[in-house]
Amino acid sequence: MQERDGTRDIAVIGLGSMGAGMALSLVRAGHRVRGQDIDPARITALVAAGGQPGAPADHAGALDAVVVVVLNAAQTEAVLFGPEGIAPRMRPGAVILSCATVPPAFARDMAARAATMGLHYLDAPISGGAAKAAEGRLSIMASGGPASFAAARPVLDAMAETVFDLGPEAGAGSAMKAVNQMLAGTHIAAMAEALTFGMTQGVAPATFLEVISRCAGTSWMLENRAPHVVAGDYSPKSQVNIWPKDLGIVLEIAREAGFEAPLAKAALGRFTEAAAQGLGQEDDAAVAKVYARAAGLTLPGETP
Q1: Domain coordinates of the chain in residue numbers?
Q2: Sign of dihedral through CA atoms 60, 140, 103, 222?
Q3: Residue 163 dihedral angles phi and psi, to the nearest 5°
Q4: DSSP secondary-structure letter at 278?
Q5: In what order do the strands lie in the sheet with 160-165?
Q6: Burial letters for 163-194: b for 16+ Cβ neighbours within 10 Å, e otherwise?
Q7: Which of 102, 176, 232, 235 is the least crowded, having the fewest Cβ atoms under 10 Å away?
C-alpha cells in the first residue's frame, strides 16, 4: 500500500526488453516492484537489481498498480482476468496500466471489466524502445478517466519522459498507438528497402547511413535500425515477430473503418516473409535480409 513518502507497491507483468526496463525505472524511483514473467531468470534479475521477491499474485491485495507489458490482447486478458488472473485479487482503487498494442475496442472492454471490480484502468501503450524504457524516458499514449490518471501518476512519472493525455475513454490510447505502429513498421521496411536498393547501385550500407541520416529521407527508425544492419548485429531490441501482430492490428482496425492502407499492407508482407524465413526472433532490422536475399546481395556480417 502507498505510504506518505510516495512509495507504491507495483507489479510488472512481462519482463521482456520493454518490461524489464520499465520495472528497473520503477525500482530506481524508489517503488517496491515485483515482476512476473514466463522466464524465471528475468524475475531473478529484477530481484537482484532491487526488486521485491515473491509472485505478484501472492501480494495482489497490497498492490497499488499493475503494469501489463505482455505481447498482445490475448495475453493481456489472460494475466488480468484469466483463471489465474490478478485483477480479481486486487483491492478496489488500485490501477491497471495496460501497455500492449491492442485494438481500441479491446481496451474499452478491459476498462469496463476492471470498473466492475472497482479498479481503475489506464489504456497506456508505450513507445521509445528498450533503451528509453531502461532510462525511464518512454512516451506513453494514455487514455482513461481522471481517477485512473491520478492513481497511475507515480508510475507514469517513473517510466515516462512524455505522457500524452488522449482523453477520458479507454481505447483512444490504443488508437494512437495503432497510428504510431503503422508509421514505425512502414519506416523500418522502407529503411530496409532503401538500404538494399542502394547496395544495387554500389552504395555501401555504412555510406547509406552516414548520408541519409543527414538528409530529408531520414527517420527515427532509420537512424535507430540501420546501424544494426551496418554492424551485422541482429540481437533483438525489437523482434521481427512483433510486426505481423502489430501491423495485423493496424489493418484490422483499418478494415473496420473502411480505410485502405496499402503501405502498411506491403510492410506487413515483408515482416511476414521475414518470419517465414526463420528471422522472427531476430531484431526487426533483419527484414533487410528479405530484400537482400531476393536480390542476391550480401549484407554486412554475412558470407556470400
Answers
A1: 9-169, 175-295
A2: negative
A3: -120, 120
A4: I
A5: 126-127, 138-142, 160-165
A6: bbebeeebbbbbbbbbebbbbbbbbbbbbbbb
A7: 235
> Which CATH code fits 9-169?
3.40.50.720
- The reply to whether 175-295 shares the fold of 9-169 is no
Is the entire prediction scored with pTM above 0.85?
yes
Q: Is 237 a catalytic residue?
A: no
CATH code: domain 175-295 is 1.10.1040.10
Asked if residue 230 lies in contact with residue 205, where contact means CB atoms within 8 angstroms, the answer is yes
Query: For 4, which DSSP code?
Result: T
Task: Please report the pLDDT score of residue 1 as a whole number.
Answer: 52
Under 8 Å CB-to-CB from 61, ≥6 apart: which residues? 89, 90, 91
Kindly give the confidence (pLDDT) of every residue in the chain, 304 residues in length, as a single tens digit, with 9 standing for 90 and above: 555 458 999 999 999 989 999 999 999 999 999 999 999 999 999 999 999 999 999 999 999 999 999 999 999 999 999 999 999 999 999 999 999 999 999 999 999 999 999 999 999 999 998 899 999 999 999 999 999 999 999 999 999 999 999 999 999 999 999 999 999 999 999 999 999 999 999 999 999 999 999 999 999 999 999 999 999 999 998 999 999 999 999 999 999 999 999 999 999 999 999 999 999 999 999 999 999 999 999 999 998 8
Is-contact 149 142, C-beta < 8 A?
yes
Cβ–Cβ < 8 Å for 33, 65: no
Which of 132, 177, 237, 245 is catalytic? The answer is: 177
In 2-158, beta strands by DSSP E = 9-13, 32-36, 65-68, 95-98, 120-123, 126-127, 138-142
Rounded Cα distance between 17 and 236, Å, is 9
Taking the mean position of all CA atoms in its chain, how far away is CA 222? 18
**Taking Cα atoms as reference points, which of 54, 89, 63, 47 lies closest to residue 9?**
63
